[in-house]
Amino acid sequence: MESRGTKRGAGKIEEAEPWNKLLLPASSLPTDPALYVGPFPFYRRPSELGCFSLDAQRQYHGDARALRYYCPPPTNGQSPNFDLRDGYPDRYRPRDEEVQERLDHLLCWVLEHRGRLEGGPGWLAGAIVTWRGHLTKLLTTPYERQEGWQLAASRFQGTLYLSEVETPAARVQRLTRPPVLQELMYMGYKFEQYMCADKPGGSTDPSGEVNTNVAFCSVLRSRLGNHPLLFSGEVDCIDPQAPTTQPPTCYVELKTSKEMHSPGQRKSFYRRKLLKWWAQSFLPGVPNVVAGFRNPEGFVCSLKTFRTMEMFEYVRNDRDGWNPSVCMNFCAAFLSFAQDTVVQDDPRLVYLFSWEPGSPVTVSEHRDAPHAFLPTWYVEAMTQDLLSPPKTPSPKD
Ligand code: GDP
Ligand code: MG
Hints:
mRNA 5'-diphosphatase activity; ten-stranded mixed beta sheet; RNA binding; alpha+beta; 19 strands; binds guanosine-5'-diphosphate; metal ion binding; binds magnesium ion; five-stranded mixed beta sheet
């Protein structure tokens, strides 16, 4: 997306004086899919830099203790019969969604590993650090017609950090979430419990609690165009039988969806859901998504594996389908827009990028609370590094 100048804002900025054009970053970014049609941009094969886990109390651990193992039911001609409502609500411990964690757990990992990141000294200073889920939202933006988003951005020691802010509309939706939707969220996690064991070769235990505080997160390195990326995403499980045991290739994403009975239902599934599934798994290089299809009674009676790299085939010939190039080109254009906008290096300065369907992405500037999101413990530890350069490691290190 080098020709940003022609693709961006057909508005007033085009009539500005040449000096104005050269010195001022664009004030908005359009999201119309037609503007992002083109060759697929460069996307480095994602490699895993490390991982971390969050426990039942949502406490961080710099290891894989929360990783679970893919354990599908035997394929002996019988269909599965998973009751996704079982245990609701008595064996459900939902995460407290009022707690805004922002990038904190990922920053904890970065702090712990900053001295030994691959890519050499200075790699982090040129990178963008964020959650996989935030990038997923960027990828699907050109096709999204319902939910807007806000992303806060700060530059610190060169690195650009992106952290989502819950929009007022999303907050209202969350606080007024109808009981059926709350139960549907539980059902998605319950499916994971039916499909995963705590140990390789172990068995599943659907009698236990569903605690959504627990998470295993992979930390990945990639690059989109000229934007080096360090991001983390929650991984559902590892397949101990996968052809390669090298992450992220051995990871499996689990999803549930309504059973489909008509061509119209299938078309809508391919257009909407597969786009989200593709974006989420393509980014970290997770090769397979295993879907459990639930009937109206909430039982999963069939499973289907979708290969991430083949999902586009379902919409390739659909005029109203999605196009992976458009998703990735838009994401690259947004990252360039953000890089050009967030020029000052200051962890207390925040640029808030806001988007609503049908409009371009706009940006506003903020200082300190409530939008500043880089925690003091992170900024101070990283600043100490610059004041006292690392000593020669002792033999014990
Ligand atoms: P996803 O792709 O949307 O599932 O999000 P990520 O994999 O990037 O998850 C990043 C972190 O955010 C992990 O610690 C998740 O447990 C957490 N997370 C995932 N979804 C949500 C959510 O809806 N709300 C909040 N507050 N955190 C979430
Ligand atoms: Mg999942």
